[in-house]
Amino acid sequence: MKTSFRTIALVFGREFRAYFATPLAAVFLLVFLALSAGLAFFAGGFFERGQADLGPFFAWHPWLFLILMPAIGMRLWADERRSGVIELLMTLPVRAHEVVIGKFLAGWAFTAVALVLTMSFWLVTLYLGSPDNGIVLASYIGSFLMAGAFLAISACISAMTKNQVIAFILAAIVSFLLVMSGTNLVLAALRGWAPAFVVDLVQSLSFITNFDRLTRGVLEAPAVILFLSTIVLALWINVQVVDAKKAA
Amino acid sequence: MQLVQASGLVKTFSRLRAVDGVSLEVSRGEVVGFLGPNGAGKSTTMKMLTGFLEPDAGTASIAGHDVFADPIAARRHLGYLPEGAPAYGDMTVADFLAFVGRMRGLSSAMLGERLAEMVERVNLAAVWNRPIDALSKGFKRRVGIAQALIHDPEVLILDEPTDGLDPNQKHDMRELIAAIAPGKAIVISTHILEEVEAICSRVVIIAEGKVVADATPTALLDAAAVDGKRPTLETVFRSITGSKAA
Questions:
Q1: Residue in B closest to A86 by C-alpha
Q2: Global pTM?
Q3: Distance in angstroms (rounded) separating the CA atoms of residues B240 and B245
Q4: Which residue in B234, B245, B244 sits closest to B35, CA to CA?
Q5: Complex-level ipTM beyond the 0.85 threshold
């Protein structure tokens, strides 16, 4: 498959700047910082625990991302369809996968900005005590990978509609299912009738279970592979959707 | 060599046959006016010519490159103004044209030269650093034309380039098209019949997805003449397409 990295870089640059062209970027960053801080302090007992670690902060990330990543991803393709720009874009001498990758990377880089801004938490724990920096690093990497998986799913769903709201809701639902698949609520419902390997499979796909493993400080291969392969699969479907469903 | 060549294009949207066997050839220096009532299949045909839509049957090529088998090569020779002149509203005119130019592979030096020419030719100096969302319809349309011309393509496909422009802007647009026409193959869809008489060297009329006329404007009018008196193009258009639609 031929790939022009120049095209990917151009699409990336345009899309990344587009986040900051509207107040959306500021709103998103504020909401993310406020929620991640608020949840860690009030619901996670950040201070009361008396431990200098970021556990209560990272524990909320799957729940935050399942709403915030669809918000970042929803406009990537739905907006192109609504405005008709997709017709212009896809008649330029570019390949669909170059545009798909460029757009995804722009959203992912924006997420990285949001995560970097939360590093003040880490500085606070450094001041208060001596956190295990290995765990912090692994958790950040895990959080970034998980965000990428949510984002790739959101981008893919965004390519299927011209309505950003529909894209947001569908992506949030799919993300919710992926988070919930590791909880006892879902597993108990399955255990009654499904064979054991199905229960194991559903549990092994859970974003929460896999993210928890990473936040314990070990970059476990299965968890990393799950998130990376989710990204690759979602982007591959994204390319097929863009190729097949150009009009409408 | 024909710069635009399409044969037997067919496209069906959930039972509705929007385009039913359209063939079209355009050679260098020609400006083809593509006419037809709303819903006749003009835009769908143009989307297939550009390779944006894949036809159910038939082939299309731009400058000798099949638009489906070798889309990248075909698109390099093509400038396209989609219906409604879509553009990234959050970008300034300068940024948007530079983005399209780079996506088309222009080098920095070449891009600077072309951008300067676009400011001049398409008359964009007044809005150069304004966001596209803030522009009037006329300027938006001009930005659409500029992005189609940025790489100086051999083939131009323009879907309603003068739609929504005021009479002065229409006049400017026609002058622009006439000025760039030699050396290019241009296909323009329009509803404005006077425009066809003013700038087109050939008229192709489609109705219900089929080509119903393909001739020079003069030949079309001569053929419809009664007692040596030519009717207007509008009369011809109505008699050809009206009976079909009825």
A1: B86
A2: 0.90
A3: 9
A4: B234
A5: yes
